[in-house]
Amino acid sequence: MRALLCKEFGPPEDLVLGELAVPEPSEGEVRITVHAAGVNFPDFLIIQDKYQFKPERPFAPGGEFAGIISAVGPGVTAFKVGDKVMASAVHGAFAEEVLAETTKCFHVPDAIDHDVAASLNIVYGTSYHALFDRGAMQAGETVLVLGAAGGVGLATVELAKAGGATVIAAASSEEKLAVCRAHGADLLLNYSEGDFRAKLKELCPVGPDVIYDPVGGELSELAFRSIGWRGRHLVIGFAAGDIPKIPLNLALLKQASLVGVFWGAYTRKEPEAYAQDMKTLMDWVIDGRIKPRVSGHYALADGGAAIRHIADRKAVGKLVIEPLK
Model pTM? Predict the structure, then answer.
């Protein structure tokens, strides 16, 4: 089968189109013909050997995908060949076929297209878990979303609005903020110019109740200094590249919480809750409460360019790779 391969650790430009043997599912696994695979920031990390998991090379990156089951392993009864599914894995999705554990695999209604299904698992899964579980977000609260036009950011804007929050979308350009507005953001903050804290105070004088932070860097401390009383700052990741060192006295002064969100570990340690999250998200898509924005479709050979677009924080919404095209 064709696959986009990482043969040596390095930048996305070093990925090459090649071939791997078609994998055979073991007990508790299914094999899926990949119709669409979502592109995410961890894909950029894993090909540089900067991720928590270290695959043996050569390997195909790609951690979320949707398609049709082409084979089932021994003992699998919940799925059959021909089922339409979405799933997640550590890697392997940027290929024509990929294996998935049945605990990470979910039936997809016909009403949801493959590219949308491939966009739900990681970004919407992370954001749903972050807001409603780790952040305990309630209707009527104010949520500040940093990096709001990216994959997880835009998902958070939609989910927070669906949950009844007032959403402040923060992004680096007016073009990105316009997309956030179209997806439900109430207030907009361009952090590429001017005084971030002054702008935020003007929009939300008492400070946000929840801060969703996939960016890191200096923006994290600026946001945490502006948080509201009993606020929750959700630590998602560090797309800016720098892990901030936030003074703990700031948490004391506002009785605020720094809350870690490790969605990957959550899916392994709490599979039943994870499964319920996925069901809720698919229900919300069908009901029209959320409308994932897929802004780019890439052929397998162009997957490196898609990862580079994500790494450079130029993507607005979700990018997917379509290995069969």
Answer: 0.90
